Amino acid sequence: MRILLFLGWLMLGVEMVSAADLGLRYYDSIKKTYKPLQVIEKDGVTISKDCLKSGKMKCQAWDAVRNKKALTPTPGVGVVGNPAARYCHDYNANNLIVLDAKKNEYDYCVFSDGSMIDSWSLYYKHFKK
């Protein structure tokens, strides 16, 4: 059974990333506690594991990967702030800081359906380095 599941993941092109290995967590301001974030790697982006449903990617974060938006112009001269966080806002998503086990910070876009994607992986998916 495990071999069949593993082969299924390979066919989908999904690399499982254990949240326990990364120790990713985010602060839930309503419950006033940290919650673990489980993620997978798919097509060069790090995205919440709950986007994978019945073997298919289905969530607003995945829709953002598939549908590039134009960048909202930055007011003023030069680039101000975090372009990946601004790009989240172009999708009507909120930017959230996620911590790993060593307390390194990562930017994640949080969509209204609760799905999340690493802000920089989404940004670089659409706008190459």
Task: Write up this protein.
It is a single chain. This protein is 29% helix and 30% strand. It is an alpha+beta fold and 129 residues long. It has a 3-stranded antiparallel beta sheet. It has a 3-stranded antiparallel beta sheet with strand order 8-9-10. The protein has a two-stranded antiparallel sheet with strand order 2-3. Strand 6 (52-53) and strand 7 form a beta hairpin. It starts with a helix and ends with a helix.
Compute the number of strand runs: 10
Distance N terminus to C terminus? 41 Å
Report the C-alpha radius of gyration, rounded.
15 Å
Structural class, from secondary structure content? alpha+beta
- Number of helical segments? 5
The helix/strand series, from N terminus to C terminus, equals HEHEEEEEEHHEEEH
List the uncertain runs: 1-12, 16-20
Strand arrangement, major sheet:
1-4-5
* Tertiary shape: globular
Average pLDDT reading: 81
What proportion of the residues is helical, as a percent range?
25-40%
